[in-house]
Amino acid sequence: MDQAEQLRKIIKAENAPQRPLARIITVTSGKGGVGKSNVAINLAIQFRRMGQRVIILDADFGLANIEIMFGTVPKHNLSDLIYQGKNIKDIITWGPEGVGFISGGSGISGMYDLSRDYLVYIIVNLAELDAIADTIIIDTGAGISNAVMEFLVASGEIILVTTPEPTSITDSYSLLKALNQQPRFSKENTMIKVVSNRVASAEEGQQLFNKLNAVVARYLKLPLSYLGEIPQDQSLARGVMQQTPVSIQYPNAKSAKAFEQIAARLTDKNAADIIKPRGMAAFFSHIITGRKLNEKGSGEQSSGQ
C-alpha cells in the first residue's frame, strides 16, 4: 500500500460519522508585527469562554510568540512527537483559562523527511487532536514563504490580519496574490476573512477592508469577507508587556470587547460562511501530499535538463 492510499484511509476514518472533526482556523499576515499572534491567542480565549475546547498550534518557525505571550515555557514541542516518541497529549501545554497550545518548532518542516510508515504514524497522532479540541487555531509565520503557503493552501478557513500601514496593506495583497497562484489552492473551498487591527475607529477598519477588497476583487477575483476591527488600545500593549493576553488582564478594554465580538461572529450558527470541519488528518495530509508533489515535479524538471 503506497503512502497516498494510507493517508486516504486515515482521512476516511476521520470523516466517519462517529468521530468528531475539529474546526481549523489559520491566522496569517502579509508582514510581521501586525498583531497576528495576539489575534490568535485572544480569539482562543474568547472561544473558551463560549464553552469550546481550543488548541493553538504555533507554526511560526523561529519565533515563540504564543509561549511568550502566555508566559509559559512548553516542556515539549512537535519535534518530540516526531523524534522522541511522545504522544500528542504529551506535547500540549495548557495555558490560561484552559487554552492548549503546541509549539511547532522545527517539527513541521521535519515531517517532510520522514519515511512513509512513520509519516502515517505521526498523522494518526495529530488526528487525535480532533477528539481533544473543537477548534484548532494555527498561527502561521508572516509573509509568503513556502511553509506559510502550504498551511494556507491546506486550510479551508483563513483569517488575514492587516493594519492601516501602507506596507501592511501591500504585503496583505502580495500574500493573497501568492496564495492565488498556488496550483493546489481552491478559492471555491477556502474562506478568507479579514481583521483590521490597530485602527482608530470602526470606520477606519471598514475603509481598510474596502481598500484591500477592491484591489483583490479587481485583480485576483478572490472573495473576502470582513470579520471586524481591533482598535488601537494601550491595554492590549500593556497586556503584551505583562505576558498576559488583554482578554484576561483587561477584559473590559476596547480591544478585548472587539475580540469577543469577532469570536461571536465566527461562532454564529446562522452565518453564511460557516464551513464543514475538516479535521487534522485531512489538514496535514494535504500539506504533506503537496510537498511530495512539489518534490516530484522538481525532480522531473531536473532529470529533464
Topology at a glance:
Layout: H1 3-14, E1 23-29, H2 36-49, E2 54-59, H3 65-70, H4 78-83, E3 93-94, E4 100-103, H5 107-110, H6 116-127, H7 129-132, E5 135-140, H8 146-154, E6 157-162, H9 166-180, E7 191-199, H10 202-219, E8 224-231, H11 234-241, H12 246-249, H13 254-266, H14 280-304
Parallel strand pairs: 1-5, 1-6, 2-4, 2-5, 6-7, 7-8
Antiparallel strand pairs: 3-4
Helix pairs in contact: 1-6, 1-14, 2-13, 6-14, 8-14, 9-10
Q: Could you describe the 3D structure shown?
A:
The protein is α/β, with parallel strands linked by helices and 305 residues long. It has one domain: P-loop containing nucleotide triphosphate hydrolases (Rossmann fold, 3-Layer(aba) Sandwich). The protein is 49% helix and 16% strand. The protein is built from 14 helices and eight strands. Strands 3-4-2-5-1-6-7-8 form an eight-stranded mixed beta sheet, sandwiched between helices. The radius of gyration is 19 Å and the shape is globular.
Give the topology string: H per helix, E per strand.
Answer: HEHEHHEEHHHEHEHEHEHHHH
Number of helices, counting only DSSP H or I runs of 4 residues or more: 14
**Which stretches are poorly predicted, pLDDT < 50 over at least 5 residues?**
298-303
How would the global form be characterised? Answer: globular
**Total DSSP E strands:** 8
Strand order of the largest sheet: 3-4-2-5-1-6-7-8
From the alpha carbons, calculate the radius of gyration and give it in angstroms: 19 Å
Name the CATH homologous superfamily.
P-loop containing nucleotide triphosphate hydrolases
Query: How many structural domains?
Result: 1
CATH topology: Rossmann fold
The CATH architecture name reads: 3-Layer(aba) Sandwich
Spatial gap, N to C terminus? 32 Å
**Rounded mean pLDDT score:** 84
The computed structural class is alpha/beta
